[in-house]
Amino acid sequence: MIIGADVGGTFTDIVLVDRAQILVSKIPTSAIQSDAIVEGVDQLVGGAPVDTFIHGTTAATNALLERAGAAVVLVTDAGFEDVIEIGRQDRPSLYDPFVDRSEPLVEGDHRIGIPADNAGFVDVSGAESVAIALIDADIDPGREQRLADEVSAAFPGLPISISSVVSPEFREFERISTTVLNAYLVPITRNYMLSLEGKMVSSGRARSMAVMRSSGGLMSAQDAAEFPAAVVLSGPAGGVVAASAYAATLSLDQAVSFDMGGTSTDVCRISAGEVDVSYERSIDGYVCRLPSVGIHTVGAGGGSVAWIDAGGSLRVGPRSAGSIPGPACYGRGGIEPTVTDANVVLGRIDPNAILGGTLPIDPKASFEVVAAMADVLGMGVTETALGIVAIAEDVMAGAIRTVSIDQGSDLAAASLIAFGGAGGLHAVSLARSLGMANVVIPPFGGVLSAVGLLLAPPRVDLVAPVLIVDGDLSRAHSVASQLEDDSRAALLRAGHETVRTRAVLDVRYLGQSHEIGVPWVRDEPFEAVVSRFNEMHNSRNGFARPQDPIEIIAVRCTAYGVPALTLEDIGGWRATRPTDRGEREVTTSAGTVASAVVDRASLRVGDTVVGPAVITETESTTFLDADVCATVHPNGSLELTW
Q: If we measure between CA atoms, which residue out of 7, 421, 39 comes closest to residue 211?
């Protein structure tokens, strides 16, 4: 038995696979995340031990967003103490002088500058965690390690993060920022991981535990506890992994994953079944120079609150009602209208639904909070509900453009792979407004991020700086061989055999300040690397300069193990319930009309449903507007066309 648990801001999703049988649970996220996980696991397995427990966590993310991390002391070279505050010459909002950068995670009097010879005692008294980031550590890690040994000897048990281990790359600001971020998150993440491992492994509920890393692979709970900067995007990465697997199965060359939950929406570009990976991103204003799936997140989810701004205009998000109190229809004291409440008013969510099989909704409460807002706006209730949905969809459409059109990818031939509890409600409207080819709703869409945890392989990502300007790849080959050996060894220490490795070269035109990660087949000549770089540069930036010289500034290697599960293990789709079709009034783009209501579990391979219709599941709902047709694929996906 294999179990995956994905903790979201509103719901915790649990998926159990036992000999191709799949059981799911969706329960409200608790204040102590591990409590909801244990509750959901116990519901599904009834006390029987599972072989593998895989977790997608938001513990590190929440600690950063809530500024609940540790008191960090930064140790760096004298004269560079303020690098993390100076940053780069960019601004969060170019034309808004009132927007400030995020405050540094280390206060000024907690930054210690040391001489080049490391002379003197480094006093880190009062620190809960230490970040050591010396300027030349990307090429000479020895100084950092010696300093770490000295601090560790003087302050036993104090967590220490060193930049040559966390992010061994050049550019001191990004490396220092990433190391500080890691140090800031270590204590709270370590405590969470140890607590969860105790509840799952030590208690006998599971024989082993792994954690999803931001790059879309698995790492041990112990490694996640020591390197929390690598799991900041742990939760949403699972959904992208699952979406890419379905894209590959359906032979979709271009796709965008669309994960709409209760708190936010995450989107990511997928090309030829491969997830777009970024090697640097900003998380709530803090630079993290580590590999992560190329997710773009916006504050538009089912629980996003609708409000009226000072100018009297209707707005939606980014604030969310969360799981407590949640949308008004949850009956937990919510008094503000949300996107979910709007969908209830429009009839797109069943007024008699029991969300996740445990949470009955109160349609009267949804109507009351939307009606109260409608009175203030001087609009009708239905008109207001449609407005809330339209504004939320406009925010989400902007996110999809960011990961596609803004990066040179044409949406006309792309499919939207929609999932999450609310993804199916808005997917068709979004895809049509953006001119996309079609929509795919995978099976188990309401808990797909948890499914993705089970599909993810064990993974190790390593990088080393180089400087190659003369076209001689011998140095790159030497570094890549060492990284490959190290990554294989790291997987083996975690108990996994390496089944494949992948090399990437960071390439840029000579004199450029930003590079592109270019996939590299080891027996390729230098000319092939140049050609691929020019193609990628042209696609991403709209131009290329093939006559200009290039330089290679880093070599990356990723090693992959065997995933716990594949889509083939899950098997084909089977209807599990008798045919169940009803009807109710639903507001569509053509007005309020009688619409078919279909239980997805009753559909068979090849069945079609023509809109207007609502396809219901325990964990999610799919809305088909007029003239939209849904067809059941052999793997259980719904292919939506118009």
A: 7
